[in-house]
Every structure is written in C-alpha cells, then in structure tokens.
Prior knowledge:
The protein has helices at 25-45, 83-101, 115-128, 132-135, 137-152, and strands at residues 2-4, 11-13, 52-57, 60-66, 72-78. 47% of the residues lie in helices and 17% in strands. It is globular and about 65 Å long. The strands form 2 sheets. The chain has a 3-stranded antiparallel β-sheet with strand order 3-4-5. It has a two-stranded antiparallel ribbon with strand order 1-2. It is an alpha+beta fold. The protein has 5 helices and 5 strands. 24% of the residues are buried. The protein starts with a strand and ends in a 5-residue tail after the last helix.
Amino acid sequence: MGSESPGKDGPVLLTSASxxxxxxxxxxxxxxxxMLFFSRQFAKGAKEPGQRSSVKEQGYLxxxxxxxxxxxxACFADEExxxxxxxxxxxxxxxxxxxxxxxxLATANSDGAFDSAFQATHTKLLxxxxxxxxxxxxxxxxxxxxxxxxxxxLPNT
Length: 157
C-alpha cells in the first residue's frame, strides 16, 4: 500500500505483507524487491480514486487499486487467481487500513510507517484471501456449481 509523500520521489510504502513460501528460499528476496519496484512504478501512474488496473509482468498480474481516499494498493498474483477477487482484496485492504489508521497519512514520509499499526491485520487479510473460494462468496458458489455439474454429468456405468 502506498501514498504520495511531498518531497519524496515516488510513492511511500505504507505497509506490506507477502506470502512467498511457494518460491525457493534464495528467490524470495529478489521477488520481494521486484514486487516493491513494480508496485511503486504502477502506483505512480494510478491517480484517479476508484481506478483499477491490472498489468502482466513476468508471469504474474499486478493488480492496482486507488481507494476513494487516494491510498493506492497493489497485489501480485498468478494468472489463475480471479481478478475480481484480487480487487475485492485490495478494496478491503484499503478500507481496513483507513479504519485502523484513522486515515491520518500526513505523518507517512518513510517506508513502513504503518507496519506496526497494521501488520497483524494485513497478514490476516492476506491469509484469508489465499483461497479465492473462501474469501469470495460468488467464487465459492461457482466452485460448488461446477462440482455439482461434474457429479450430475458422470455417465451411468
């Protein structure tokens, strides 16, 4: 999550969380740095409140959302992760962030300024959204319908 800070070149990283356990140990730092770099680049171009965009980069999609309050949130997911669920996550993330911090971003002039206040909430939300079917009711219903369709369509033997 980020916000523009006067006098700083580019967005300030307000807080971050990542789940990189599927990557090799020696890859994690490089991937985390890449995600930070591209998040900053994409956040620079995101200006309009309510703006949503997705950018494909190195086999992943970076989803970027600008909240009505002007906070920019970005997440990286593989191409199989539903875009609608990713934007639901980003919207919920911004909403929870503004609630926890009271929307007071004036003091945010360095990266990680809100990590201590928001890290536990952020990590919980990230964990919740790891499985799209658990995080999103429509995705869960669609998965159940697909499962029912498979059971109904099995030929009688």
